[in-house]
Amino acid sequence: MNKSVLFLAAALLAGAAHAQVTVDKPWVRATVPQQTTSAAYLTITSVQGGKLVDASSPVAASVEVHEMKMEGEMMKMRGVDALPLPAGKPVEFKPNGLHIMLTGLKAPLKAGDVVPIKLVVEDAKGKRQTVDVKATARQN
Ligand SMILES: [Cu+2]
Which of 3, 23, 29, 43 has the fewest CB atoms lying closer than 10 Å? Predict the structure, then answer.
């Protein structure tokens, strides 16, 4: 096998590893003046199954996965430490449901801004994979 074939094989293997987790339709809600929190939404699918264990972004001091739950009459949100990703089943983050909470925004998010978000997914064996997401800001 010559060098270029080896390189191609390595590139294909790397590509396959990344394809185990896919992210669709990422977006983040644009902010109004003085607003320092926002939320990002996307659909994430893990082919093998796993869990979403961490999220971060350079635009916010803190990034957490939140879910919405009814508590009596009140809709409350709370943090999820490790969100299960069932094998092959898309998990949808959407307004009034799962969201990626951005707290302590360093600057307003204007419509059209592209916000980088890093997700960390852990598989059943405890192996972690980083997924880079680019979420475009819009009003809704
Ligand atoms: Cu939240």
Answer: 3
Give the residue extent of every domain in the chain. Answer: 21-138
Q: What fold, for 21-138?
A: Immunoglobulin-like (2.60.40)
Q: What are the CA-CA distances from residue 4 to residues 1, 9, 12, 21, 43 (Å)?
A: 8, 9, 12, 27, 36
pLDDT confidence of residue 140: 84
From the CA of 11, how far away is ligand 1's center (Å)?
38
Residue-wise pLDDT tens digits, 33-47: 999 999 999 999 999
Distance 19 CA to ligand 1 centre (A): 28
User: For residue 128, how far is its CA from the centre of ligand 1 (angstroms)?
Assistant: 24
- Give me ligand 1 centre to Cα 66, in Å: 5
State pLDDT tens for residues 4-41: 665 555 555 555 544 589 999 999 999 999 999 999 99
Mean pLDDT of 124-138: 95
Ligand 1 mean position to 23 CA, how many Å? 20
